Amino acid sequence: MAWIYLFVAGVMEIAWAIGMKQSEGFTRLWPSLFTLSAIAVSLFLLSLALRGIPIGTAYAVWAGIGTVGTALVGILFFAESTDLLRLASIGLIGAGIVGLKLVTP
Q1: Handedness of CA 5, 6, 12, 16 (dihedral sign)
Q2: How far apart are CA 91 and CA 88, in angstroms?
Q3: Is residue 3 within 8 Å of 53, Cβ to Cβ?
Q4: Which among 7, 18, 59, 101 has most CB atoms closer than 10 A?
Q5: What distances in angstroms separate CA 77 from CA 10, 18, 56, 71, 92, one per listed residue?
Q6: Which residues contact 22 (CB under 8 A, 6 or more apart)?
Q7: First-residue to last-residue Cα distance in the chain
Q8: Is the pTM of this model over 0.90?
């Protein structure tokens, strides 16, 4: 169950990162409220995941999911660069997430 909490926490990190962009510096009410809610849910789920996953692994995976997911959303919806080096770097982060999952009970 801890890994499910961690995965959903990572997805919520993606949500709050995108929400932060949409809030335009917290000047728009609804995107700002969404962002703050997503941050709270993400951190709460991360705290639940920490009951069963070592902190170093959990934090790295949580941040990695957020990083890779946010970068991919940026590419798909905000016309961000698809430069080969950028994509390879995102892939390396993804490989690190998978590696940490494989070596953590």
Answers
A1: positive
A2: 5
A3: yes
A4: 18
A5: 19, 10, 31, 10, 22
A6: 28, 31, 34, 35
A7: 12
A8: yes
